[in-house]
Design goal:
The structure holds two protein chains of two kinds. Chain A is built from ten helices and twelve strands. By secondary structure, chain A is α/β, with parallel strands linked by helices. In chain B, helix 15 crosses helix 16. Classes of the chains: A alpha/beta, B alpha/beta.
């Protein structure tokens, strides 16, 4: 693998108290397994709720009923803890069955503060909320904005269209780090690797062909102008490929476009951060 | 009474001291049986063969005309209840013989069909049974597997297609847009008034905000009163709008689900359509299969989620179904060979309820026992349906629930799988009620006669369900022709068991042994098992001797070896006699003492043993006491035999005076139960000897029962009894005067051992046959028994006269005693 190391050690899965569907959680677990990463669940508690509990007029519309009832600080705290515990159980229920190291934590700080503590080898996993209510009421920032981190980000749209198929790398050049990561995933998953990259010069094409011949998976290159790529362009280029995952370097693919591409194609997009050469 | 005891001595080898023996016993006209009457050799002279390899096996059932006709009727009559109950000796090889007959039966009915169980999509606990033409069940099962495999690829593909995803996304987006629009509008409206919507663990709440953060209570309380009131009023208004939106969500969600379901149905129908039509085309001639395939199609369309992974629309899987896709499997319970001409013949050696009528198995799922239609297992009845089911009735009756279940199946003419654990209340889990399968079956039960008669007496329904009785003969009449058939039967066994061929002499000895097994010189046993064992053992000894052909010597060796293996008890009994532990005299005379003969059968081995029977008398009230009965060692038949003696005495002697005898009879040194009346003649001889004071010969042993008229009647085990006494005499030294007195009616049963026959032929031993007690008494005492003259008196000096005189004397004694008591009552009372 030309001596480069991926340096990814952990997936940090940002969770809120809304629903997280099994299908996407399984896809995340499978990817972590393929890359031999630990997985950390990080539940962001809404700080506004604790502030609300102190108001004498505060009441909540409980969806079971539905009916209004006063917000009592003790009961609210218990329900928040109960919800966190339920999520923790669900988290371990899904990921504990895999050969993964798993951790779960409740973050009471802001998302920005929590993301600031991420380690260089971390992959921040952002799961697109399914529930529009979740979107309207979430204390977390919308998805592209959430990806305000220097490290790798995995954007998981809702719903996923498929769990099998080739791995796609969008690379600006043949030495792009995303290719190595995509290659690792493809090899582990036993899938093909599709590389979307600018048309290469003869010498580069020859070098690329020689390198491909040593790779453990079938590789196909599709010429693509990465620099000004829009999600629709990516979708158009990948028509009929039936990919399972797109891997791109964040320096090559804007995070907003990456998130939009994930939503459009309904497959996860893994944006790599800075890699060590 | 003279002392009946005589000096008696023997050397340590058991050889009597010849000098002291009387040699002048007359036989009172009774002549020993000639050697020809002691053993009947086989006559195979007209059967041309060198070894059994040259013999053609006999056709059909040998000597079983009655059973053959019954089986022919039972197997051909197609009416309910005409099942067969085949009875006979346990080792008559009935099952094998009947099976061979059944194989030759030309089927008169169409070949039985295949049966499968499939899921009942409407009621999962009631699996549906479907019949198919022979051999097509496997085709159907494979077709369903192919169909499901196709769907496993086709359905995910179509649900991943751009078209589906687009349509699905459109539905989701419409729903989300409705919600998002409502919530966004409310959120924006609230934000304008510095209010935010919060998601609590259980619902929604509204709170005032400042600088994007929820205002804390302290901060809020620091606000001026009007501002606080305004915020609260705003929140109250917004709460109503929030409530309105939340109330609409379930309706929107329901609409979305309906749309998604409709889309899924359309998509699945499209994907399933071609595959199902292809499958249906293969079974277009089977309407029930087409009906099931339609049900499968509907179920696939309704539960497409199980093919395309978990979706929010997926129904929770029914644990009774197991793997969700298993519901489309086909459980082949009976599969016939296509084109097979023979009807199924099924033997069930272990007819438990489950093995008989099938079973429903369970698997443990999270600690709960669950089941489904795939766990239905066929029983022997399923496999035999349309043909014949062969069961040993003893095995059947030993299994709980099996006999009633078999009768139920025959009565209802359908196979209903019954869960034994439910009968005994071992499980309360939900079980299945599979469709019953129509039953068209001939059941053939095999068993001992005793079992059949017992069962028929206890269960009156036996005759309703087993109307045809096939009673296997134990033996066939012996003639030259039947001996030849028997020889061919032996040849068939030799061939079937792959034994070395037997030469003529060997075959002849086996045929003769067949007579011995039959206990009758005029019969040949049809009990195949002991003959088969003998042939196998003879084959072994031939192999040991390096012979390619089994000879008579090998058969003889096998007979002797078998007897030797089983004869430990016999040898111990013989040893105890020879060592004078058990007192048996084989020479001299004794009053009131005789050698009786008994047969002991243990573990299938029989041997004869002499037993001393003695009698003591005195005046009494006319009672003959059987000591065996008094101490409850005598069985009822034995007691009956003794009571007959009183009848004989009363009818023959001293008819004008009361019977004033007290006699006690005992089997000396007998410490176990005594049953049978074969010693009753010996007991009568002892009684007559005691009454007449005439000593009885101890060199003779006696067997035979007697009736009230003094006629000697046949007994069983005559060969063993003679041989038992012969062995003792030979061990002590044959004198030429020793022998056995048997009933004349038993002469036809004689098939004695070669050494006994040889000794008789040489005059060193004798077998006498008598038909009346007077013949026997003359032989045993050397005196004529005596017949009444025209005056009604027995001749003076005859045994009968002496008996009668003694009885009169006893009567007088009793009369005198009674008179004394009447004259001096006080004395009599002392």
């Amino acid at each position: 693998m030309s001596g480069r190391r991926l340096d990814l050690t952990r997936m940090v899965l940002a969770l809120s108290q809304g629903g997280h569907d099994r299908e996407r959680m399984d896809a995340i677990g499978e990817l972590a397994e393929l890359l031999h990463l630990e997985i950390q669940g990080l539940l962001f508690e809404d700080p506004g709720l604790r502030a609300l509990a102190g108001h004498t007029f505060a009441r909540e519309l409980r969806t079971i009923g539905p009916a209004w009832s006063p917000v009592e600080a003790t009961r609210l705290a218990e329900e928040m803890e109960g919800a966190a515990e339920a999520l923790r159980r669900r988290f371990f229920g899904i990921f504990g069955r895999r050969r993964l190291k798993t951790h779960f934590e409740v973050a009471r700080q802001s998302a920005a503060a929590a993301f600031g503590t991420l380690r260089p080898g971390d992959v921040l996993v952002l799961v697109e909320p399914v529930d529009p209510v979740e979107l309207a009421c979430s204390h977390l920032a919308p998805l592209p904005e959430s990806a305000e981190t220097a490290g790798a980000v995995l954007i998981v749209p809702a719903p996923l269209v498929r769990r099998r198929g080739p791995v796609v790398a969008i690379a600006a050049e043949s030495g792009d780090s995303s290719i190595e990561l995509a290659l690792t995933i493809a090899a582990a998953a036993g899938e093909r690797l599709i590389v979307l990259s600018p048309p290469a010069r003869d010498a580069e094409r020859a070098a690329s062909a020689a390198e491909r011949s040593l790779m453990p998976v079938a590789v196909e290159e599709i010429p693509f102008e990465v620099a000004r790529a829009r999600p629709a362009d990516i979708a158009s280029r990948l028509a009929g490929v039936n990919e399972r995952l797109i891997v791109a370097s964040r320096t090559r693919l804007d995070r907003t476009i990456g998130a939009a591409a994930a939503s459009l194609l309904r497959v996860p997009v893994l944006l790599t951060g800075n890699t060590s050469d | 009474m003279p002392d009946a005891r005589m000096d008696y001595d023997r050397n340590l080898d058991g050889v009597p001291a010849a000098a002291e023996e009387r040699t002048d016993f007359p036989t009172a006209g009774a002549e020993p049986l000639t050697p020809e009457r002691l053993y009947r050799p086989a006559d195979l002279s007209r059967l041309s063969f060198a070894t059994t390899a040259d013999l053609v096996p006999p056709e059909g059932l040998v000597g079983q005309q009655r059973a053959r006709e019954a089986i022919a009727l039972g197997t051909r009559i197609a009416k309910p209840g005409f099942n067969l109950f085949v009875i006979g000796s346990p080792d008559a090889h009935m099952q094998g013989a009947v099976k061979a007959l059944l194989r030759r039966i030309e089927p008169r009915r169409p070949p039985p069909c295949d049966w499968v169980y499939v899921n009942n999509f409407k009621e999962a606990n009631k699996p549906a049974a479907i019949s198919l033409p022979p051999g097509r069940s496997l085709e159907f099962r494979d077709a369903m597997r192919e169909f499901i495999d196709d769907l496993k690829a086709a359905l995910p593909a179509v649900f991943e297609s751009e078209d589906y995803q687009t349509r699905r996304a459109a539905i989701d987006q419409r729903f989300q847009a409705k919600q998002a629009s409502a919530f966004s509008a409310l959120r924006d409206k609230a934000a304008e008034k510095n209010i935010t919507i919060l998601r609590t663990p259980m619902g929604f709440a509204l709170a005032p905000i400042a600088n994007g953060q929820v205002v804390t209570p302290e901060e809020f309380n620091a606000w001026p009163e009007p501002k606080r009131r305004e915020a609260q009023e705003t929140i109250a208004l917004l709460e109503k709008e929030l409530e309105h939106i939340v109330m609409q969500i379930p309706g929107w969600e329901k609409e979305r689900r309906e749309e998604v379901r409709k889309l899924n149905r359309e998509t699945a129908n499209f994907a399933v359509g071609q595959s199902i039509e292809e499958t249906k085309a293969r079974f277009a001639d089977l309407p029930r299969i087409l009906q099931h395939l339609d049900a499968v199609r509907s179920d696939v369309v309704e539960n497409v989620g199980i093919f395309v992974g978990k979706t929010e629309d997926e129904q929770p899987s029914d644990p009774r179904i197991g793997n969700p896709l298993d519901r489309y499997e086909v459980n082949v319970v009976v599969s016939q060979t296509p084109g097979a001409s023979a009807l199924p013949i099924v033997e069930e050696p272990h007819p438990t309820l489950a093995n008989l009528t099938g079973s429903i198995e369970y698997v443990s799922l999270h600690g709960v026992l669950v089941t489904n239609f795939r766990l239905i297992k066929a029983g022997a009845i399923h496999r035999a349906n349309g043909g014949f089911l062969l069961i040993d009735v003893r095995n059947l009756l030993m299994e709980p629930f099996s006999w009633p279940a078999l009768k139920r199946a025959l009565r209802q003419r359908e196979i209903k799988i019954e869960d034994v654990s439910r009968f005994v209340g071992l499980t309360s889990t939900v079980s299945l009620e599979p469709d019953p399968i129509p039953l068209d079956l001939k059941v053939i039960l095999f068993g001992d006669r005793v079992l059949y008669y017992l069962l028929a007496a206890i269960d009156p329904e036996v005759g309703d369900y087993f109307k045809v009785l096939a009673d296997f003969e134990d033996d066939l009449d012996r003639s030259r022709e039947s001996e030849e058939v028997h020889a061919r039967l032996l040849a068939a066994i030799v061939a079937r068991e792959q034994l070395r061929p037997f030469d003529r002499e060997a075959v002849a000895l086996v045929v003769e042994h067949a007579s011995r097994i039959a206990d009758h010189a005029g019969k040949l046993t049809l009990r195949i098992a002991p003959l088969k064992d003998l042939l196998a053992e003879a084959d072994f000894w031939a192999a040991e001797s390096g012979r390619a052909v089994v000879s008579r010597a090998d058969v003889q060796k096998a007979l002797e070896a078998k007897e030797g293996r089983a004869s430990r008890l016999r040898d111990r009994a013989r040893e105890s006699i020879l060592q004078d532990v058990a007192l048996i005299e084989t020479s001299g005379e004794r009053i009131g003492q005789i050698n009786g003969l008994s047969v002991i059968e243990l573990g299938g081995f029989r041997f004869g043993r002499p037993t001393r029977i003695s009698c003591r008398i005195r005046p009494g009230t006319g009672k003959v006491v059987d000591i065996e009965r008094e101490v409850e060692l005598g069985g009822p038949i034995h007691s009956k035999g003794v009571l007959i003696l009183s009848g004989f005495l009363a009818g023959r002697y001293a008819l004008d005076v009361p019977m004033s005898l007290f006699a006690s009879l005992v089997f000396e040194q007998s410490y176990a139960g005594v049953e049978g009346d074969s010693a009753s003649s010996a007991e009568l001889y002892a009684l007559i000897s005691a009454l007449s004071d005439c000593p009885l010969r101890q060199d003779l042993a006696v067997t035979g029962s007697v009736n009230q008229y003094g006629e000697i009647q046949a007994i069983g085990g005559v060969n063993e009894k003679i041989e038992g006494f012969f062995d003792i005499c030979r061990a002590r030294g044959l004198t030429g005067r020793q022998g056995v007195v048997i009933p004349k009616a038993n002469v036809q049963h004689l098939m004695l051992r070669g050494d006994v026959v040889e000794a008789c032929a040489a005059g060193r031993f004798a077998v006498y046959a008598v038909s009346a007690i007077d013949e026997g008494i003359a032989l045993l005492t050397g005196r004529p028994a005596g017949a009444r003259d025209p005056d009604g008196a027995f001749p003076a000096g005859s045994v009968n006269r002496l008996v009668e005189d003694k009885l009169r004397a006893f009567a007088h004694v009793r009369q005198a005693f009674a008179s004394d008591r009447l004259a001096s009552p006080g004395t009599g009372a002392k």
